[in-house]
What we know:
By secondary structure, the chain is α/β, with parallel strands linked by helices. Helices cover 41% and strands 15% of the residues. The chain is built from 13 helices and twelve strands. It has a six-stranded parallel β-sheet with strand order 2-1-3-4-5-11, sandwiched between helices. The protein has a six-stranded mixed β-sheet with strand order 7-6-8-9-10-12, with helices on both faces. Strand 8 (260-263), helix 11 and strand 9 form a beta-alpha-beta unit. The longest helix has 16 residues, at 209-224. It is elongated and about 80 Å long. This is LacI family transcriptional regulator. Keywords: DNA-binding, Transcription, Transcription regulation.
Amino acid sequence: MNDTGKSGRGEAPATMGERPTLKTIAYMTGLGITTVSRALKDAPDIGAETKERVRLIAQQIGYQPNRAGVRLRTGKTNVIALVLSVDEELMGFTSQMVFGITEVLSATQYHLVVTPHTHVKDSMVPIRYILETGSADGVIISKIEPNDARVRLMTERNMPFVTHGRSDMGIEHAYHDFDNETYAYEAVQRLAQLGRKRIAIIVPPSRFSFHDHARRGFNRGIRDFGVSEFPLDTITIETPLDQIRDFGQRMMQSDDRPDGIVSISGSSTIALVAGFEAAGVRIGEDIDIVSKQSAEFLNWIQPQIHTVNEDIKLAGRELAKALLARINGAPPETLQSINRPVWSPMAPKP
């Protein structure tokens, strides 16, 4: 009688229509079921070559662990929940974030589940659901507030999590963030170098942390480079794009208008540019624009825009790595990173 704990050769592979199992992989690799299981869990005592062979076979035959069984045996779901606002920027943000996360998770037993929500409603709803149902081993959240109730609740409930953005509430937690303060400061500097004197900024809503970061950098730049602010109090990057376009057209048809714009959002920039062009304004001559973007596209549309790239795929990778480390018990204060702005090579020189 075959000892399946040591060898999988006595068990035929799954037939057509049957779900592949650990026994199937054991049969195809000539390894024991225990070895196969440990290889898929990235056990340190299993050689790298063996792990790669097991993972390759598992991928080829479409093996998926039985989540119910895994949860019964280990108490784990092997699920990572990405809780994303449906209000996230349209231009490549969500897809690039998911690509980055899955690049890291593909070498592990974890699966990604995207949970959409809207900040207009209660952003706590998806977090409470995950905590009450135990439907994930770790959580990634974005659109962080300075005093974020989600951060507090998951910390209190000992749920491993990581945030895209930073809070300001005295709780150490894992995060990856873009340096919006440095971006806004350098954007004002770039516009000042171009001779612009009246500079406006389109910012996130004030409830979010990256509003405060961008504001700090912008205000410091205004002071350091001897220019003045043209206030934009009626729109944010979450204002509907058609309203941003109409606002831009009306503003540039007025005698009182800015000569430089700093934008935190690529999609908002496109809407503004449409409004400016409808008003007969020439980008790079009548006004200069500095914009952040999550994918190289603004300079294809309007080469005169000064662009800074925020690498969202990198953010996804960093968030996934930090969350896996947090699940494995790493202290949160060791899992904090900030990505500095990088000027696009396609952007015009000042």
